[in-house]
């Protein structure tokens, strides 16, 4: 028994040692070449050796068992990518490893030369895009964390400033503290320094100018060296073209993105679904809502494969900052009741909003919402009538493949776990996660349960839209299939 234990422990330490050899390669590609590496969508940036091993183990489970992905193969691929003078790409080593092994090719350089042929070579003349966060609440601070975490020395998104209304002499310190510590998402990963004289926050080397203003049109961003900026409005104060258009009157602004559903003719964008429809004339855009982002990709995949006749969406949603902690006056009566003590029935526009990204769903969906006493992570229950009869196994296997290999892989994830609960999805970076064990199928009737981190998962979608309109969204390797081809 002791010998078995010693052997198992030795094998474990060998795996740890092998994973440790990957860390400098992953970091070099990210810091010097703007190449993000992942294992079936699970980013490897800034992971420990243990977490890298876990990512490989998870890849084995999600790929349907078998031999999985070897650390040695990952190292071989990483070393070959480092030898290539490329920039700005999202490289899935899990998918590449499977393709490489299946090809029987022994020349990794030739294999990668073919796979990465559409990735650009480094261009020193390339620049990034300036980003300004107008408002610094729940979504604003998460966007700041993501943008700082993804900050690059080369072309990419540059968080340059946040704009808020001043609330006292210690406002700057309090804003920094809220960025530093979060009761839901944990501590900021890195260091934060405050400069009161210059009104700046230095976060992991990213210098963020704090600008105090309550008038979007009057801010002169150019005086801070900010030009052609994308302003991300997180306040929700304005949702129409007239209100949001005030940002475009400010010096140094080129585009505006709203982190809430837009009204009127504003294009509501769900990344992965209709981001290709964005034109140069779209100066004001909306990233829709967290729920719309959570359910639209799943609905699109189902409609493409099986056809959706009609359905109802019931969201079980964590309480939000617009509710009262204890009973008090609120313009929406039920939201005035204590958020931490009650399930609160309220409305959601997500069902109708789906049709703004997917016009074919116009008039097909109804929806309602129940706010519950949890601070983050929500669930959408999709009760659908399909055009064809399906089985639970058929739907689950299709969505699992979509989550692994399709062009919606960044938006859809799939899990099968008997004990998984909402807190397990805090910090999950995909828009929606299908809970396969909960799927119910009976002929043409289908019920799906889709988890989503309504704060972090949504914020990741917002950043993808910013990358798109900023022209810095990375090339994807290997090429992802259409949902019908998985």
UniProtKB/TrEMBL annotation:
EC class of the enzyme, as a word: oxidoreductase
CDD domains: GAPDH_I_C (cd18126), GAPDH_I_N (cd05214)
Residue intervals of the Glyceraldehyde 3-phosphate dehydrogenase NAD(P) binding domain: 129-290
EC annotation from Swiss-Prot or TrEMBL: 1.2.1.12
GO MF annotation terms: glyceraldehyde-3-phosphate dehydrogenase (NAD+) (phosphorylating) activity
UniProt keywords, alphabetically: Oxidoreductase
Family designation: Belongs to the glyceraldehyde-3-phosphate dehydrogenase family.
Name this protein carries in UniProt: Glyceraldehyde-3-phosphate dehydrogenase
Species: Gulosibacter bifidus
């Amino acid at each position: 028994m002791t010998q078995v234990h010693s052997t198992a422990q030795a094998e474990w330490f060998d795996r740890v040692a092998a994973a440790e050899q990957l860390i400098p390669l992953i970091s070099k590609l990210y810091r010097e070449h703007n190449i993000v590496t992942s294992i079936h969508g699970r980013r490897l940036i800034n992971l420990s050796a243990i977490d890298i091993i876990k990512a490989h183990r998870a890849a084995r489970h999600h790929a349907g068992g078998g031999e999985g992905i070897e650390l040695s193969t990952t190292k071989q691929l990483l070393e070959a990518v480092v030898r290539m003078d490329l920039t700005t790409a999202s490289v899935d080593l899990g998918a590449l490893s499977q393709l490489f092994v299946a090809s029987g090719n022994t020349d990794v350089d030739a294999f990668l030369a073919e796979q990465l042929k559409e990735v650009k070579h480094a261009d020193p003349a390339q620049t990034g895009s300036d980003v300004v966060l107008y408002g610094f609440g729940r979504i604003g601070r998460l966007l700041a964390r993501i943008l700082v975490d993804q900050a690059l020395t080369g072309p990419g998104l540059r968080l340059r400033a946040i704009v808020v209304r001043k609330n006292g002499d210690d406002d700057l310190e309090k804003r920094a503290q809220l960025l530093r510590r979060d009761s839901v998402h944990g501590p900021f990963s890195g260091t934060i320094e405050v400069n009161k004289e210059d009104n700046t926050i230095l976060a992991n080397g990213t210098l963020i100018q704090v600008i105090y203003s309550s008038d979007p049109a009057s801010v002169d961003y150019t005086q801070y060296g900010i030009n052609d900026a994308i302003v991300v409005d997180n306040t929700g104060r304005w949702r129409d073209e007239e209100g949001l258009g005030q940002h475009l009157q400010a010096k140094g602004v080129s585009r505006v993105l709203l982190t809430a559903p837009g009204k009127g003719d504003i294009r509501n964008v769900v990344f992965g679904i209709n981001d290709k429809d964005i034109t140069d004339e779209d100066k004001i855009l909306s990233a829709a809502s967290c729920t719309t982002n959570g359910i639209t990709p799943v609905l699109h995949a189902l409609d493409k494969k099986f056809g959706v006749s009609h359905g109802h969406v019931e969201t079980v949603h964590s309480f939000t900052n617009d509710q009262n902690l204890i009973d008090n006056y609120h313009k929406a009566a039920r939201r005035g009741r204590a958020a931490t003590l009650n399930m609160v029935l309220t409305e959601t526009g997500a069902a109708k909003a789906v049709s703004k990204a997917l016009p074919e769903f116009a008039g097909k969906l109804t929806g309602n919402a129940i706010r519950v006493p949890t601070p983050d992570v929500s669930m959408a229950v999709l009760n659908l009538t399909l055009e064809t009869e399906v089985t639970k196994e058929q739907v689950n296997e299709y969505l699992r493949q979509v989550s692994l290999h399709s062009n919606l892989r960044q938006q859809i994830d799939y899990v099968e776990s008997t004990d998984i609960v909402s807190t397990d999805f805090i910090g999950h970076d995909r828009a929606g996660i299908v809970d396969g064990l909960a799927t119910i199928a009976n002929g043409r009737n289908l019920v799906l349960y889709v988890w989503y981190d309504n704060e972090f998962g949504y914020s990741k979608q917002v950043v993808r839209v910013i990358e798109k309109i900023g022209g810095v969204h990375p090339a994807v390797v290997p090429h992802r299939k259409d949902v019908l081809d998985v």
